[in-house]
Every structure is written in C-alpha cells, then in structure tokens.
C-alpha cells in the first residue's frame, strides 16, 4: 500500500565560523538515514525507537512534512516523493497523521464538530448535510459516542483521552487509507491508553486502514502491531513480526530495549541489560555499525564495516553481524507463545 | 519507629470562588529508613499534593488542614516556616518530574547544585562546595567538568541526574521522586532507576517514588501505597499487591499495565476518571468506576482494614478473611453489573474515558488529566 525506499532526511547544520575559515563543509543531521519499510492495507506496523532515532521524522516525511533528501515514498506503487499542489493535497487526503499532544493539536476556540469538519471543508467534500454526517461518523469511529454529545463541545471540556479521540476523528473525517499515529498515547495515563489502542484496532477492522504506530514503548508496539520495526539513529536495525521479534530478538539493541521494559510482576525483576551513555548525535553518526559505540557485543569489524541485513526467518531481518546466531539463553527473558485472545476478537 | 510517618493527612485548596477542595483526605502511611515506597494512582489522585505537603511546597492556596507528618520522631508539620526551611534538603529532598523546568536556564548547573549547601551550611567554603559538587556529579554519573555548563547543554536524562545530585547535596535521609522518569526514554529511565537504587543501597536513603506506572514500582520499590481521590485504597508489599491485590482499583490499575513478558492481551483500562477534588463522591470514591460497587458503597465510605503484615485496604467487597469477592457474589449496582458483564464476556466496554466531563467543572485548571493543583 505505502512504501518507503531508502528514505533519507538530512537537515543541514549552520556553517560554523571556524569551519568556514578552515573550508570544512557544514555538517548535517542525518535524522533518517536509509529507511525501507512497507505498510500493507489493513496492517499495523509499529516504529519503535528512543528520542533521536528518527521515528518521528520518518512519520513526518511520509506525509511530506519533512524534507526528503533521498529515497522514495510510494503509494500503491506510485512515486509520491516529489508531488506538489493538487496531487499532494489528494495524497494527504489518503494519508493522515495524528500527533502526540492532544492539548496542542486542537484549536481551543472552536467546537469539536467544527474542527473535525474542517478537513472536509478544505477539500471541498460534500454538502453541509453530508459533511455533518461524515463528522458524526468520524466521531463515532473514534469512540466518541453518541456523536451529538460531543459535536458542540469545546476542547477544554474534554479529558486528554477524549481530545486524542477528537484528533483521531479529525484524521478519519477524510476517510484516509493510511493513518500515521505519532506517540498517540504517551501523554495519557496508563488507565486511558487501552481505550485509544482499541479505537485503532477497530479502525483497522472496520475501515481497513493501515496504521503506522510510532512509539518509544516496545510493549505498546507489541500489543497492537502486526510487525515491529526498531529504529536506532536513523536506521531500522531490526524488523519482524511483533510476537517473534519480542520472543526472539536478534539485534543487541532490541535485546537491550526488551531487557529494560519494566514488568508489573516484582518476582520477574531480572538482570537488566542497561546500555551506557546516550544515543549519539545524529550529526556525528558512528562509522561501521552505528550502534557499535554502545553495543555490549561489539568487536573490531563493527567499527569499520556496516553490518549486513540478515534475514533470520521469513520477514524477520536484523542488521547485525551476529544476527544469524541465536542469542544466548539468558538474554531471552520472554515467555513464548502467549495467547492473544483479547486481540483476536477485534481482528 | 518509622523514618517518616504521615498520619491522617488532609490537604485543602481554596478554589477561585472561595470553596475548599480536599485534594488529600486523611491518608496515613510510613516509610522506614532505607526503604523504597511507591505512591501510585492516576493523575489527580493526590500523589503529588501529598509530596508537596511533606516538603511544604504547597502553592499559596493550599494548606495542611489537619493531620500530622513526623520525621524521625519529630513533628515536621508543627515546625514554623523558618524552622522547616532549615530541614528541607537536609532531611527530605524532592526531585521533580520536569527537569527542564526545575533548573534555572541562565545559571551553571554546578552553582545550582551547590546552592542548597551554601544555604544550609553557611560555613562551607567555595572550594569545599565545588569539591562536593564534583563528587556528587561523579556519583550520579556526570563528568565533573560539566559543572560549568548550562542546563540547555544537557539531555533530559542528564538533567534528571543533575536534579538527583542537587537532591543529595545536603545528605538527606529521604528523597521523594515525583515521576522522575516519566518524560524519559525507556533506556534512560532504566539508567535513572538503577542510579536511584544504587544510591539507596550505598547511602541508606529512603525513597518515595511517585508514579502512575505500577510496573516501575514493582521493579524498584519494597512497598506501594495506592491512592485514589486523595485517600488510601490499598497498601502492602509490592508482591502482596501484585499476587493478591484486594482493592478493585488496584486490580484495575494492575490490569492496565501491559506486561511484555506475559500474555499479549490488550489491557482493560479503567472507565471514567478520578473525581475532581471540589466535587467529592459520596461513600466509596471509586464506586462510579468500580465493577464491584454495591448500594452500601454509595452511602458508606469503607474503613481501612489490615490483613497480614502491612497489607491494608479500604473496600466493602473484601471479606473479613481478606479476599476480594467476585462481582457475581455481590448485590451489584446496575452500572457495576454492566461493567462486570463487559469484562467477563469481552464485550465492547464503553470507551474508557467517555462518561465523565469533569474538566469543565474544575475551575482551578482546565487540564483534567494533570493534577490540577500542581500547576499553581
């Protein structure tokens, strides 16, 4: 459905005076540095990474909110990397994005119905009555039921969870095929998160949309996604079916991320594999494997040579020299083959 | 005797229209020396207010209306403001959530960390203070040379380390962390939690960790205090709370945390949201959201009962033997019955946050998801 091929988003840094004197070219921040990813119709793919991994920029580049330096974005096989004007508007009708902060993404002075209907007005879709029907449908899709209870309210009358639902309704009003959700629940209390996740699963079920779910929380990704892509410093370092990637992570970064996920069971306190330091600056990407500076398993070759993408099983790819070897037993603290009954019902 | 004893603490805020609102309503708990206690609950349950009352940092419209706070046998809440000021940082210090906002952007971090020492130990020389800052930085994992830098030169995790260094500057015996890792990446969160654990072990610190994430408490604390709407719902060791939670709120809270090592099931969440402190719910405050609610829950506030070592709970649905009755054993309210059926059949539960529109009723702040009192 939608596809990224070798996507790069580089932001130029301002030339420093001393650099100018010495004729050193200005540096650049390699926010996204070669991401290839496919999202099928009705599929949920999670893009997981820490701050600075480039996951948000990838999402923004997908809706053409970030400048694409190289690579391609394809929608149903058609190259949309450089479309403009009317084509771009049509594209954005089909690919919508929602942001993390439900407090800032809504206009405090306008009613909910008004805001959800705005994209329809902008795109000149339907008559007034048709628009109002579509607004109600979008509110209902986002779980704001019955819609007439919310249409005339203002954002300040709603809780954070409800506001995020309004943001979803705004995105759904145009009937998109793809939804990019950038950390949609990370500002919400844990008790409210499930509601929003459930809305997304329902949207996939009822409308057949594909969702790119961007999050820093591996456990949320694992809960709702079909596939997970783990990003580090502008690259996807591991991608695979959600259950398999969590059960059998092959990249040392994924393994470390998994080992530090807190568990509500105090009996499961275990050896955390805490990485030292922080993700390096994206303007100074390390040579060879970009993770080698923090990797507990790094050896000489990692510093000089970029690791190959190893397909460890169908659809499960890790960019690591060691990926072909099964990880040592103690780094696999995950229970295998857990049931997924609650999810099954929604699919 | 416990290091910190909070007894029947009541904190009231005067609202814009002059009415009082009780953000904390009669909570009691202890923290032993060297112990880590988690204060858990959703936003708006009075966790932060409790911490601000202990450290006497309540905003101007808030006050301790009754109850007492004892530290090492001395009544902190009876001290006059000047006497208390001498104790803050030396007995109890606090680490706030937003390290972004808690540091002064135009002062060097080293000077900021040294400030509490200068105030509390006027005899300390400049050189001695700087040497101690360097040691503190080393202890929390920041290179000592960085003490001449400004906050904007630090990442979020590093700023939180600066905050921890500052909290330790005057050798306190209790450190309160108010959501110290909430805004951080998982790996940085793990680093900070590990640091706090190490400091607790090495320095014999007692820690109160405030969080809405029960899994963070399970990883780092000995005991947990579950708060709901300003009151104690349940307290016990982290394993008691995990293995045998008695309060339906604790059960629900546990059920809303995904466990990547457990079953891949979408957590249930909790319908509705906590009541606003100026519109208290009669009876048990959790009853409108509870799938165990009976008619007595609407009229009578449940008293606290103790079951076994340090396990206390306030709920009518718990038997005298310390077992939470199943909803099917109880004469449920219609609303509770609906929730219980939905949970049992996996039917479409009403959206978790639909029924309550409390934000509009809260004149203090239009932001219902955050603790409304903290922003003032």
List the helices and strands and how they pair.
The complex is a heterodimer of chains A (347) and B (376).
Chain A: E1 2-12, H1 17-21, E2 28-39, E3 44-48, H2 55-62, E4 70-75, E5 78-79, H3 85-94, E6 95-98, H4 112-122, H5 128-141, H6 160-172, E7 178-182, H7 190-207, E8 210-215, H8 218-224, E9 227-232, E10 235-241, H9 242-247, H10 252-259, H11 300-304, E11 309-313, E12 316-319, H12 341-344
Parallel strand pairs in A: 3-8, 3-9, 6-7, 7-8
Antiparallel strand pairs in A: 1-2, 1-4, 4-5, 9-10, 10-12, 11-12
Helix pairs in contact in A: 4-5, 4-6, 5-6
Chain B: E1 4-14, E2 20-31, E3 36-40, H1 47-54, E4 62-71, E5 74-75, H2 81-87, E6 92-95, H3 99-102, H4 109-120, H5 126-140, H6 156-168, E7 174-178, H7 186-203, E8 206-211, H8 214-220, E9 223-228, E10 231-237, H9 238-243, H10 248-255, H11 295-299, E11 305-306, E12 312-313, H12 334-345
Parallel strand pairs in B: 3-8, 3-9, 6-7, 7-8
Antiparallel strand pairs in B: 1-2, 1-4, 4-5, 9-10, 10-12, 11-12
Helix pairs in contact in B: 4-5, 4-6, 5-6, 6-7
Describe the structure.
The complex is a heterodimer of chains A (347) and B (376). In chain A, 31% of the residues lie in helices and 21% in strands. Chain A contains 12 helices and 12 strands. Chain A has an 8-stranded mixed β-sheet with strand order 6-7-8-3-9-10-12-11, sandwiched between helices. Chain A has a 4-stranded antiparallel β-sheet with strand order 2-1-4-5. The longest helix of chain A has 18 residues, at 190-207. By secondary structure, chain B is an alpha/beta fold. In chain B, β1 (4-14) and β2 form a beta hairpin. Chain B starts with a strand and ends in a 31-residue tail after the last helix. Classes of the chains: A alpha/beta (347), B alpha/beta (376). The interface between A and B is large, with 66 and 57 residues.
Short synopsis of the structure:
Chain A is α/β, with parallel strands linked by helices.
